[in-house]
Amino acid sequence: MSRHLLFSKVRNVAIAAVAVMALAPMARAQDTIKVGVLHSLSGTMAISEVSLRDVVMMAIDEINAEGGVLGRQIEPVVVDPASDWDLFAEKAKQLLLQDDVAATFGCWTSVSRKSVLPVFEQHNGLLFYPVQYEGEECSKNVFYTGAAVNQQAAPAVQYLLDEGFTRFYLLGTDYVYPRTTNKILKAMLEAKGISSDDYRVKYTPFHHQDYQSIVAEIKEFAAPGDTCVISTINGDSNVPFYKEFANQGLTADDVPIMAFSVAEDELRGMDTSALVGHLAAWNYYQSIDTRDNASFVEAFKAYCEANGLPGGADRVTDDPIEAAYYGVYVWAAAVEKAGTTDVDAVRTAAYGLEFDAPGGAKKIDEVNHHTWKPVLIGEILADGQFGIVWESDGLVRPMPWSEYTSADRDCDHVNHDGTYMKAMAP
Q: pTM here?
């Protein structure tokens, strides 16, 4: 399937056709292809993951309206792991062994991905993971459609350094993604000449709600000036954090926040009037001004309204939503190319696949299961959208292993067996 054909369906499927598709599970036909949808619909991560379920269902409906895959309809099997990491593994096992799905689209947090990874590897399943992550992973059973650290966190920190910031408060939720990302960022900062006295690291549990003392600490740390916050807070804790930040009188002019897990969807639940000017690093924004993206945004809003989903036509798109959406199309294109849903054949067919996503051209890497994509830094606007203030020069090659902490490692599933040690220059 050509790059053009992969996403031309978005422009060609009428909004009326999208509207008639119900969110409820499809009646099972005798000859359908089952896929799993593994996102938290309840619990602390529902604020972010429900929309990924919604857009995956929309993509499936669009593909089915155009005849399905290999002439067969796709049948989604939707489960709710409820922000419970052990339950993620149980649900993944159910999808692979009981429901016999050909692929699964799911997870947000790295702890949920780490929980299901042994299941997918043991049973040779295929997971499409749509969220930015910390790297240091190279599984043949996962396609990573979100960003690696060199496609989000590292260029964001470089942007702040270039803007003259010299003090960094690294604040995150206490789990593997923030801890590993901050390990890499600390090594990067020190490599760039930032003393350990000029950065601070703090973690809070999932669903943490009281940020009063932490924001007070940030104010004290920021007193010398040229200070910013690097936020890897995930889930519903973002709401009280930004609220407390504003309550204590801090603004983006004083101490800008650079966030890696706050996008348009999370901002729907916040008072954005006090957040104007704070920053985020992603690879897609709803504000990208192209015809393809406008069609995607319109289709998602229409789908949500037609299916009675909360927010309806006021819903927004964001980076993980786009990545979850095109993940379904990448899988479908690889299946068509392979002529089968066999995991090994589909994996090989996906290597090097180029396609036009709603936000523009992207590519699945030829060997490492990650996605080439642009890097975009945006500032929050009063309407909850982002204005793009910086972007990379074209697509950035994904590097699962960071040059700052693991320069001797790389990921290659074609010429090597996944992670391998590189020959280093003497």
A: 0.92
| Residue 16, pLDDT score | 36
Furthest CA-CA distance within the chain: 68
The alpha helices in 285-318, defined as continuous H runs, are: 291-306
Please work out, in degrees rounded to the nearest 5, the angle formed at the alpha carbon of residue 59 by the alpha carbons of 112 and 350. Answer: 70
Q: What pLDDT digit, counting tens, does each position of 333-346 carry?
A: 999 999 999 999 99
- Residues with Cβ < 8 Å from 67, sequence gap 6 or more? none
Q: Can you tell me the distance from the alpha carbon of 274 to that of 372, in angstroms, rounded to the nearest whole number? A: 34
Asked if 292 contacts 284 with a C-beta cutoff of 8 angstroms, the reply is no
Per the prediction, the chain carries an average pLDDT of: 93
CA distance 138 to 415: 13
Does 27 have pLDDT greater than 60?
Answer: no
Give yes or no for residue 389 having a pLDDT over 90: yes
Query: Whose CA is closest to 241, among 265, 208, 266?
Result: 208
Rg (CA), the chain: 21
CB atoms within 10 A of CB 392: 14
Cβ(105)–Cβ(54) below 8 Å: no
The yes-or-no verdict on residue 8 having pLDDT over 60 is: no
Higher-confidence position of 424 and 282: 282
Q: What are the backbone dihedrals phi and psi of residue 309, each rounded to the nearest 5 degrees, phi first? A: -80, 145
Contacts within 8 Å (CB) and 24+ apart, 269-275: 269/47, 269/239, 270/238, 270/239, 270/242, 270/243, 270/384, 271/243, 271/246, 272/380, 272/381, 272/382, 272/383, 272/384, 273/382, 274/242, 274/243, 274/245, 274/246, 275/242, 275/246, 275/380
pLDDT band at 423; cut points 50, 70, 90: confident
d(CA 152, CA 344): 30
Nearest to 125 by CA among 145, 106, 146: 106
Is 199 a residue whose pLDDT tops 80? Answer: yes
3-state helix, strand, coil in the chain (%, to 5): 40, 20, 40
Q: What is the pLDDT of residue 12?
A: 40
Other beta carbons within 10 angstroms of residue 151's beta carbon come to 27
